[in-house]
Amino acid sequence: MGDDAVRVRGLRKAYGEHVALDGVDLTVARGEVLALLGPNGAGKTTLVEILEGHRRADAGAVSVLGFDPARRERGFRERIGVVLQETGLDQEIRVREALELYGAAYPQRRDVDEVLGLVGLEERGEAKARELSGGQRRRLDLALGIIGDPELVFLDEPTTGFDPAARRQSWELIDGLRELGKTILLTTHYMDEAQHLADRVVVLARGTVIANDTPDKLGREATVVSFRVVPGITLPAGARVERGIATFTSSAPTRDLAPLLGWAAAHDVELEGLSVGRPTLEDVYLELTA
Ligand SMILES: Nc1ncnc2c1ncn2[C@@H]1O[C@H](COP(=O)(O)OP(=O)(O)OP(=O)(O)O)[C@@H](O)[C@H]1O
């Protein structure tokens, strides 16, 4: 256990016949920011709800901050923060009041003004929840999730529905939480978000972990080659063609490019738009979950 905030082994959960989690192993070190990715229905919500203590696993070992979350002990609930996409907050409550109210449940709460500053709502303390813009509302949700000074914060799709500027602001906020030493487990559908925020990315598909690595290493194994297709060229096996652009991933790009370049030179053809580069996290993700 020691330095691990989360430790899960052999986790299984079925809804009737449907197996949602099929032997998941997961470790999150203290202070780590982990992004959980996966297509719709992969089991992300089920996994996170088990870690939060909102759902029971059928089998497997789960330890979160040294607790079994299923027991929902007070000492456990006081040390985690959950930021959901929607909180059922009273629309008439004022921002400061909401933070005082939520904070009262925690022995170690942070100072309300400090938290307002942290989420950039220092000017909105006296506003009612219903008077906030969508982005401000999400910042209030984040503030409510951290008012109890939790060690581990769960963030559910923290920037879904945000405009680009609001997303950047949220990223800064989350970076701020990292600097406070918090362990963060976030679910997201945005690859650039995982790339920007996470120390490590875990990809879940059909209830199992299919990748678990740093964002950089996930893309390091392969090279992506693409160019505009010309008549007569023989594409390597596995190449995809979309709107006239051929793309393939290669673990031996020199070997795979040689025949293409040789052919192009012999026929005096320029391969338009030729690019050879590292795959984006999105390329890797699409390939993994295909
Ligand atoms: N309460 C439930 N009863 C029955 N089936 C469920 C229940 N909750 C989830 N499922 C099923 O379990 C699977 C995993 O669902 P889960 O919500 O954990 O996936 P997810 O990765 O969070 O998906 P999304 O990205 O769409 O939120 C899905 O096939 C879903 O239909």
Automatic annotation (TrEMBL):
Kindly indicate whether the keyword Cell membrane belongs to this entry. Answer: yes
Cellular localisation = Cell membrane
Its Gene Ontology cellular component terms are: plasma membrane
Ranges of residues in domain ABC transporter? 6-231
Which residue spans traverse the membrane? none
Topological relation to the membrane, as annotated: Peripheral membrane protein
Which UniProt keyword terms apply here? Antibiotic resistance, ATP-binding, Cell membrane, Membrane, Nucleotide-binding, Translocase, Transport
Which InterPro entries has this protein been placed in? AAA+_ATPase, ABC_transporter-like_ATP-bd, ABC_transporter-like_CS, ABC_transporter_ATP-binding, P-loop_NTPase
Task: Classify the main location.
Answer: membrane
Named from the GO MF annotations, one term is: ATP binding
Protein's name in the database:
ABC transporter ATP-binding protein
- Origin organism is Solirubrobacter phytolaccae
